[in-house]
C-alpha cells in the first residue's frame, strides 16, 4: 500500500464533519472522492495536504507517517502537488515563472528549471507558452498550467480539488480523459475531489462515495454502477429506478421482494442480493434496476410471469441514439421508471416493463 489513512475524524464545534474514514491506495492509483456539496470531500483533501488538523487519525505516504496525532509533518514537507478549484496561477508571473515557482524555492539551477518548464509544457500539451501571462490563456489552458506547476517538483501524491469545475461540459470531458492518460503515463498517485459522477467515472480506478463525512462505498466505477451499497449510492450514482417495498425471503443471493402493497397491490419481484446490510433487513428497502437493464414490452408477456409491471408512457426522447422513455407504474400510476425503448412511444400508451432479476438489486 502506498497511501494509508486510518480512522480519520474531524468536527467543527458539535458538528462531526468526517467520521471514521479509512482508505488505502496503491502507487499510481487514481481515486476520486465523490459526494454532494458539504459532505466533507475538501476537508479530507486538506487534512492529507496538512492544511487542516484532524481530531483523530493516522496518515502514511510511502514509508513515512505524516500524521499520527503526535507527529505532524508540515504541509510544505509532505511532498504533495495540489491543484485547487480556482487554479490560483499568479497573475503577475508568466507561465514559465508560475511553473518554476516551486523549483526556485528548492534552489534548482536556471538550466535545470528551463529544461523542466519546457518538458512540463510538452507534457500538458502547451509547448511554447512560456512567455504568456495567465490572462492570455483560456480556462482549460490555465488549468493545465496549474497542473504543470503542481507536477514540477515531482510530488509523491497529487491532490486535485475540483480543478475542472469552472470549465464547460465539453472541455471538462476532454480534459478529464486527457488527465487520466497523463496520470497513468506518469504513474502518479492521485486523489481527485469532485461532485460530478461522470468525471469520477471517467478518471478513477476507484471511487469513494461520501455522505455527511461517512464512506458509503469504495469501489471501482463498474462495481459502483452494478453493485450498489445502499439507496443513497443508488440515487447519487444514478440514473437508477428505485421501487419501495421489503425483502420477504432470501436463498443465497436470490431474494423475493414485496413491492409496497399500498402502491402495487400484491406484486412480488425477484432480485439479486450483493449487500449484507440489505440481506439482513426486513425493514423498508428498495428494489433497484438501471434504466439500461429494463426491457420494454409492447404486449403483456405470458412467458415472463415474474418481474413484470404494467405502466403508462409519459414521455419519450431521443438521447445518444436511443429512445429514453419515462413510464409511470404503480396503482396510481405515479412512480416514474426510466427505460430505453426500441422506438418512440406515444404518451398514454400502455407498456409492460420487465426487470431481469439478475440485473435487479435490493438495497437498504
Ligand atoms: N472552518 C470551518 N468551520 C466550520 N465548518 C466548516 C469549516 N470548514 C468546512 N466546514 C463545514 O464542513 C462541511 C464539509 O465541508 P467541505 O468543504 O469538506 O465539503 P465538500 O464536500 O468539499 O463540499 P463542496 O462540494 O461544496 O466543496 C460543510 O458543511 C462545511 O460547511
Automatic annotation (TrEMBL):
It is an enzyme of class 7 (translocase). This is ABC-type quaternary amine transporter. It comes from Dictyobacter arantiisoli. Transmembrane segments: none annotated. InterPro entries: AAA+_ATPase, ABC_SmlMolc_Importer, ABC_transporter-like_ATP-bd, ABC_transporter-like_CS, Mo/tungstate-bd_C_term_dom, P-loop_NTPase. Its EC number is 7.6.2.9. PANTHER family: SPERMIDINE/PUTRESCINE IMPORT ATP-BINDING PROTEIN POTA, THIAMINE IMPORT ATP-BINDING PROTEIN THIQ. PROSITE patterns: ABC_TRANSPORTER_1 (PS00211), ABC_TRANSPORTER_2 (PS50893). The lineage of its organism: Bacteria, Bacillati, Chloroflexota, Ktedonobacteria, Ktedonobacterales. Residues 3-237 form the ABC transporter domain. GO terms for molecular function: ABC-type quaternary ammonium compound transporting activity; ATP binding; ATP hydrolysis activity. Keywords: ATP-binding, Cell inner membrane, Cell membrane, Membrane, Nucleotide-binding, Translocase, Transport.
Amino acid at each position: 500500500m502506498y497511501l494509508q489513512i486510518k480512522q480519520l475524524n474531524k468536527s467543527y464545534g458539535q458538528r462531526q464533519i468526517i467520521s471514521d474514514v479509512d482508505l488505502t491506495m496503491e502507487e499510481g492509483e487514481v481515486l476520486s472522492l465523490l459526494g454532494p456539496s458539504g459532505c466533507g470531500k475538501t476537508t479530507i483533501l486538506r487534512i492529507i495536504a496538512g492544511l487542516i488538523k484532524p481530531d483523530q487519525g493516522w496518515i502514511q505516504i510511502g514509508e513515512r507517517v505524516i500524521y499520527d496525532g503526535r507527529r505532524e509533518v508540515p504541509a510544505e514537507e509532505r511532498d504533495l502537488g495540489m491543484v485547487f478549484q480556482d487554479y490560483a496561477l499568479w497573475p503577475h508571473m508568466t507561465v514559465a515563472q508560475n511553473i518554476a515557482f516551486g523549483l526556485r524555492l528548492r534552489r534548482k539551477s536556471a538550466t535545470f528549471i528551463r529544461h523542466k518548464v519546457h518538458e512540463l509544457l510538452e507534457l500538458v500539451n502547451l509547448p511554447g507558452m512560456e512567455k504568456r501571462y495567465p490572462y492570455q490563456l483560456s480556462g482549460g489552458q490555465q488549468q493545465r498550467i496549474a497542473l504543470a506547476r503542481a507536477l514540477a517538483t515531482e510530488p509523491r501524491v497529487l491532490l486535485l480539488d475540483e480543478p475542472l469545475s469552472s470549465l464547460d461540459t465539453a472541455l471538462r470531458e476532454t480534459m478529464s480523459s486527457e488527465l487520466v492518460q497523463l496520470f497513468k503515463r506518469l504513474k502518479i498517485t492521485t486523489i481527485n475531489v469532485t461532485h460530478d459522477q461522470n468525471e469520477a467515472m471517467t478518471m478513477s480506478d476507484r471511487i469513494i462515495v461520501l455522505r455527511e463525512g461517512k464512506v458509503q462505498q469504495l469501489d471501482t466505477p463498474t462495481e459502483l454502477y452494478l453493485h450498489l451499497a445502499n439507496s443513497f449510492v443508488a440515487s447519487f450514482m444514478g440514473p437508477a429506478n428505485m421501487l419501495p417495498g421489503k425483502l420477504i425471503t432470501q436463498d443465497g443471493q436470490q431474494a423475493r421482494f414485496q413491492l409496497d402493497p399500498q402502491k402495487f397491490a400484491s406484486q412480488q419481484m425477484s432480485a439479486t442480493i450483493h449487500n449484507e446490510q440489505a440481506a439482513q433487513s426486513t425493514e423498508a428497502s428498495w428494489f433497484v434496476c438501471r434504466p439500461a437493464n429494463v426491457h420494454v414490452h409492447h404486449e403483456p408477456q405470458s412467458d415472463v410471469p415474474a418481474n413484470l409491471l404494467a405502466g403508462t408512457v409519459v414521455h419519450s426522447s431521443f438521447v445518444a441514439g436511443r429512445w429514453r422513455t419515462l413510464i409511470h407504474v404503480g396503482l396510481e400510476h405515479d412512480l416514474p421508471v426510466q427505460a430505453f425503448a426500441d422506438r418512440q412511444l406515444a404518451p398514454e400508451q400502455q407498456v409492460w416493463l420487465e426487470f431481469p432479476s439478475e440485473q435487479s438489486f435490493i438495497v437498504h
